[in-house]
Amino acid sequence: MSFDRPAIVKQLVWGLSCCVFAWAAPQSTQIRADDDLASTAAAIAPQEAAFFATSVNLDDQWQEIIDGKFVARLRAVPFVQQLESEFWEQWENPQGPLEQAKGALENPNVQNLIKMADEMFSDEVFIYGGEDWCEMIDGLMEFQNEMYGHMSGGPEALQAYFQSIEKSDIDKIRIPTTVMGFRIDDDDNVRLQLDALEGILRLGGSQFEEAQPFL
Hints:
Number of strands: 3
Oligomer: single chain
Order of helices and strands: HEHHHHHEHHHEH
Distance between the termini: 35 Å
Number of helices: 10
């Protein structure tokens, strides 16, 4: 499978957008007129979920970013134009590590992974948390109140409090139920990749006794 410039530009913009999203204030996602809640992951999220969030029509959003003024202005900067020109020149005639990287990206197995990642962020991404999130937050607030109470006694009191925490107290901590999902069309490819990932995790995790309960 060959690489075309629009596809790579989209992936580069996606990576840049993730960096921007890390510090920019999130914007609300607009659902198209022909969409309704029943067509989103809201239809499968349990009503008792502690929280639920979804983002739909992602491919349209990425395309709007690519066609937007920000990317246009960025690509109009002479320094950026020079970098882009040098990148494509080296990409078309790769040498050394870049040649190896390009060869790896053209591997069919890697192509399937790239296809899955592209699909994951092209339609809908959702996340929701179970009721045990409320219990975890209550526990954190209780711990915070206890810690602040000991802080008033000075550093020695706070140190004594932390030293009094037993392993059994730590073992009581439970990761709350969290489900993250993606709307994907190519089920066969996803199942293949997940089966391969499960095999790798089981093989690697079998080397560590601490990981056994999770396998």
